[in-house]
Amino acid sequence: MQKRPLLGLTLSELQNVVKNLGMPGFSAKQIASWLYDKKVTSIDEMSNLSLKHRGLLKEICEVGAEAPVDAMRSLDGTVKYLYRAGEGHFVEAVYIPDGDRATLCVSSQVGCKMKCKFCMTGKQGFTANLTSNQIINQINSLPERDKLTNVVMMGMGEPLDNLDEVLKALEIMTSSYGYAWSPKRVTLSSVGLKKGLQRFIEESDCHLAISLHSPIPLQRRELMPAEKAFPITEIVELLRNYDFSKQRRLSFEYIVFKGVNDSLPYAKELLKLLRGLDCRINLIRFHAIPGVNLEGADMETMTAFRDYLTSHGLFTTIRSSRGEDIFAACGMLSTAKQEENKEELI
Which of 135, 172, 264, 324 is the most buried (most CB within 10 A)? Predict the structure, then answer.
């Protein structure tokens, strides 16, 4: 019988587990503390549970923590970790140290359905949703976990396409029984699945980043097929119903492609699209991937683009590029090759 992982369960789910085993109700909080505060790897380590209750728990459950199976280190200090995600599947998570900050880029799916033209994960295709256990394990089993200051749901997959499991993971990250992080430490990135987006905004206080990449709907559709079902104009109108002027931050990600979306008319269309919305733009350098006839704009062009937007009231930054030499930068995550050669890793 396959045992149920405890790691990745919310407090209410743990309460159901102990209730079904006839354990005291307070055992759920004790287990949560062992999982998310003390980060144990076995039920035997849960010393404030009686031997009897540990035995009952072990019959049907396991901690479910699993160390990464591989790691690649960049010259800039970025580390890309490979995690097993079910039978024969893998996901990548990227650890990015930067002075007194350390960010983990977390995956939510094996592959992705969105098929964005510029993204290696999209070219891999979709294989499976990650469970909350597999999402939280990327944090829990990270060798540098105690150094983390921020988590971004910007790895493999579309988080809003796996919303139930993602919301459970976010609850664990931000609840007092879990990691007890401020929601300001967590950002979710999405192409903008409308129904899921509304639910995420209303059920979570974490930051939100929308993948924009073009303010022109027809062009965005060429770059991002999801535009057909989830038009950027409708996404923006939905966002206007919520208040992002306080602690919660709304940002738009914009990869700058040479000769495609990097000129003044696009900057003007961005201003028109986002006028009156409390938000910021993150400009991202494109990292060339095989089989894609797109190039990144040069830094001079990106700087001029940023300065124009900022001077017209739209706060804009250029995101620094990290981990490109190990294919860990934005849009470069893919485990297709690992899954082809999975027998070598197992």
Answer: 135
Look up residue 251 and give its two tokens.
Answer: 């940002």
Q: Are residues 206 and 97 in the same domain?
A: yes
Does the annotation place 269 within a ligand binding site? no
Distance of CA 292 to the CA centre of its chain: 24
Over residues 114-151, the pLDDT tens digits come to 999 999 888 889 999 999 999 999 999 999 999 999 99
> Is 53 annotated as contributing to ligand binding?
no
Q: How far apart are CA 74 and CA 321, in angstroms?
A: 12
112 is in an annotated binding site: yes
How many domains are contained in the chain? 2
Cβ pair 245, 256 in contact under 8 A: no
Q: Which of 66, 92, 165, 253 is catalytic?
A: 92
Note down the domain range covering 315: 70-342
Whether residues 197 and 306 share a domain: the answer is: yes
| Residue (of 252, 253, 251, 260) closest to 297 by Cα position | 260
Instruction: Please indicate, yes or no, whether residues 208 and 87 belong to a single structural domain of this protein.
Output: yes
Which pTM value belongs to this model?
A: 0.94
Spell out a b/e string for 175-200, using b for 16 or more CB atoms within 10 Å of the CB, else e. eebbbebeeebbbbbbbbbeebbeeb
166 and 19 housed in the same domain? no
